[in-house]
Amino acid sequence: MSNELMIRQGFFWGTLIIVGIWELLWPKRQLSVSKAVRWYSNLGIVLLNSFLIRWLFPLLAVGMAALAVEKQWGLLNNIDIPYELAVILSVIVLDMIIYLQHLMFHAVPRLWLLHRMHHSDRDYDVTTGLRFHPIEIAMSMVIKLAAVVAIGPPVMAVLIFEVVLNASAMFNHGNIRLPAAVDRFLRLFIVTPDMHRVHHSEIRRETDSNYGFFLSWWDRLYGTYRAQPEKGHQGMTIGINLFKNPTYSHLHWMLIQPFINRK
Predict the structure, then answer these.
(1) 3 state SS for 112-180
(2) Can you give 30-42 as a three-state secondary structure string?
(3) Rounded to 5 degrees, what are φ and ψ at 131?
(4) What sign does the CA torsion over 99, 104, 107, 109 have?
(5) Secondary-structure percent of the chain, ordered helix, strand, coil, rounded to 5
(6) Cβ(123)–Cβ(175) under 8 Å?
(7) By the 8 A CB rule, do 207 and 201 touch?
(8) What whole-number distance in Å separates Cα of residue 180 and Cα of residue 182?
(9) CA distance 157 to 41
(10) Residues 6+ apart with CB under 8 A from 263
(11) Which residues lie closer than 8 Å to 229 by C-beta, 6 or more apart?
(12) What span, in angstroms and rounded, lies between the C-alpha atoms of 183 and 197?
């Protein structure tokens, strides 16, 4: 799609600004680390990852979906179902694959060394949802492209999924306050900040729960759902004990974290 980049950039900056303002007006927790350092590092890794992906991959997910349609690759390009149903099913299946990928990056020790950079953030705000190691981002893109080829989703479905995944990652990492009743209702369908914050707990059994990014169904279906942190949202400790030193909040240290002390 010729305007794909404009659409994605619009939703990216729109969500970042809205959630960022929400955090300033109604924060859930008091931050403990300099926001300037964290934002420079977390947004810096986004820029680095964007350049890396554009350099490594001649086709991204939407482009691969267009190629799959042209070549008739994938399941949905070879069965006769209504277009609207194909779009809905594609978004749901792609979200489940992201859930399973996330679970894999926790369960496989070598992959956890990469993924733990996301968890080493000592605070939890909108930029935490963008903080992923470049190697993990490249591996995730390979998995996503393979999923697109296998599923054969409509191009529109992949664009919707990319926008929703990015926006929901920023929303559910937001340091924002939601009324309890609203949170309970929303998490019947989507991942809320209070639901996903549990996943960033220093306690490993809490870290190994609530893997979803958009739809909240998968954690309940696969038995990885945890409603609340043991110590409450104000009392819980966020991050990884190994990287408590504020030095690790800087961009260059974030990049080498997977190669530090493999405990």
Answers:
(1) HHHHHHHHCCCCCCHHHHHCCCHHHHHHHHHHHHHHHHHHCCCHHHHHHHHHHHHHHHHHHCCCECCCH
(2) CCCCCHHHHHHHH
(3) -95, 95
(4) negative
(5) 70, 0, 30
(6) yes
(7) yes
(8) 5
(9) 32
(10) 242
(11) 197, 198, 201, 203, 206, 235, 236
(12) 13
Report residue 168 as tokens.
């929901």
The one-letter amino acid code at 72 reads: Q
- Residues whose CB falls within 8 Å of the CB of residue 20, separated by 6 or more in sequence, listed in order: 126
pTM for the model: 0.94
* Residue found by looking up tokens 């909240």 in the block: 216
115-165: pLDDT as tens digits = 999 999 999 999 999 999 999 999 999 999 999 999 999 999 999 999 999
Label residues 92-115 b or e (16+ Cβ within 10 Å = b).
bbbbbbbbebbbebbeeeebbbbb
